[in-house]
Amino acid sequence: MIVTAPSSAPAAEKRAPRRPSGGLRRTFALSLAEGAVSLTSAALLLWLCLRIRINPMDRIGQVSGLAGIQLRLMVMMALTVLLYLLVSRWKPGTATRFGAAAVAGLATGVIAAGNVVSLRGTAWPIYANWGDIGNLQQWAYDVIDGVDLPAMYPPGFPHLLAWTSELFFDGDMGRATKWVMIGFLALSGPAVYMAWRMLLPPLWALGIGVTATLPVIDPYKPYSALVLAVVIPVFAKMCDVVLHSTELGRRRSAAAGAGLGLLLAALFLLYSGWFLWSSVGVVVLFAMVLVGLARSGGIRGLLDGLLPLASALVVFLALAGPYLARLLGSGSTTKDAYFYFDTWIDPAYFTMWTSGAPGPLRSLGWPPPGELAGVGLFTLVLVAGLGVALTLGLRQPMVLTLAACTASAFLLRYWYAAHMERDQAVQLYPRTSHQLMYCLIALTGLALYYAGKRVRVWLRLHEAALRGGARRTAASRRPRAGVVGALCALGLLFGLAGSATVNAYMPQDPALNSTGQFAWFSHNIRQADGRCPRYAVKGECSPYVPPLRGPYRPPAVQKPFERLTPPPALSVTPK
């Protein structure tokens, strides 16, 4: 398929005329206000939950803490709906913007608040200074000491952690890591919402973008999920700018490309894995877009489309080029031999995943059997959403980008899994499950969005026959009721999903081998100040192991992980 110029789109879906500069300034100011409202709602919920006083190592205390978070969320949701009803009498559009933005902040503010509750009484982040989180703290100390970071890992987060530790926590890296992670959790909802607002109206940005983020939010390392949830709509916006570059004009399209290149560079330096999984699809997508522009607009159309891409590439390479060169240079020699639970399951299954701590799933047989030839109903809904989205929005930038990133993730997933036995390497391929879920949920949401647009067009064409004068008056009040219904329904969904996510990371005995063990260790390792955490078991804790410091130490060699013995139900024999 060749993506043609935007003039081939149906008349009802053509781009609106370009706004005058005054309208752009007003839109920009409103967008800043939306972001501020979203951040404020997340911060306010987090502040309210700081006052929850429970023992997180006791299960009754955990249940009380979870309920306390939900009570505060209900109050915040009631205030949001009330403020929407008050403001919508005079400014309905602005009220909808701010209401959706506030709920987006609450969506991940719930998870951030849960992290605060689960870590109450300890200065450590989840998993203290062990595992991946310990490596990040060590690399932050390396930044302070002037030691080179690993070539493969993005430098953004270790630098951010080092600066935060020195500026706000007097060098206490564990405490800094804890609050930086909580900050990223609280920021996730507002950031994802604002990214999708570049493409969609407020309620649809909330319902599609933030909802698709729910399965991939990870309280352990939330910045990686944030990058995934933001980079996909940024790619889609880049596609939109290129497709409409002639209409935008060269100055505006070049400026837009440079701004998107700046955002992509920042995301790449923070976490680069999703760029790898999307790379094949994104390259093919933009090649198709440029070919379509050349066919519809000739040389001028091609040059107009190349301009924003070139400006984005220049800014991206200027900021992220050195790390990209190191990544490409070391990629062929880096081998990931971490074989864990998800590497034993059917590689075509992606709708749920675990980690190195699968808990009781090992004895249940995984994945669970589906209703249609092993495929579950939820997967069937995602497949149907994909089909409808492609049918109704095949030439739309959002659908094109999400479909390209989905195909790219599947391709690379199967490529690495197919070579896993030969190379004795995993290369992180199970993480493509996160991208596949995110993209397919978003595509299902877009299927509803474009179907709704078709229905509205049909209703407008037949309005005179369908509605009388009395019914028109009643219908004029429906938009407010629809907004209230959407805000309440999505608020309930986000609260339920957030509570389930938080509950999975509440401290739990390591003997159960669940994700709850990571927070348990946070409460049972001596802190940097020499004291045990407040709720350590029997008041005793494991010794604190200080980080290796100094520019002349040899590089640390990480002990390879041992392979998990596969569950008998999976019938897999390791080589």
Question: Care to describe what's here?
Answer:
- This protein has 575 residues and is an all-alpha fold.
- It has 20 helices and no strands.
- Helix 1 packs parallel to helix 3 (92-118), helix 6 (173-197) crosses helix 7 (202-213) and helix 10 packs across helix 11.
- The longest helix has 59 residues, at 273-331.
- It starts with 20 loop residues before the first helix and ends in a 53-residue tail after the last helix.
- Mean pLDDT is 88; it is low at 6-17 and 552-575.
How is this fold's topology laid out?
Elements: H1 21-49, H2 59-87, H3 92-118, H4 131-145, H5 156-168, H6 173-197, H7 202-213, H8 222-243, H9 245-248, H10 250-270, H11 273-331, H12 361-364, H13 377-393, H14 397-418, H15 420-423, H16 432-461, H17 463-466, H18 469-475, H19 478-504, H20 516-522
Helix pairs in contact: 1-2, 1-3, 1-6, 2-3, 2-19, 3-6, 3-7, 3-19, 4-5, 5-6, 6-7, 6-8, 7-16, 7-19, 8-10, 8-11, 8-14, 8-16, 10-11, 11-14, 13-14, 13-16, 14-16
Count of discrete alpha- or pi-helical segments spanning 4 or more residues: 20
Class by SSE composition: mainly alpha
Q: How would the global form be characterised?
A: globular
Find the count of extended strands (DSSP E, 2+ residues). 0
Low-confidence stretches: 6-17, 552-575
Please bin the fraction of helical residues: 55-70%
Average pLDDT value? 88
Radius of gyration: 25 Å
- End-to-end distance, in Å? 42 Å
> How many domains?
3
| Main sheet: strands, sense, barrel | none
Report the portion of residues in β strands.
Answer: under 5%
- SSE string: HHHHHHHHHHHHHHHHHHHH
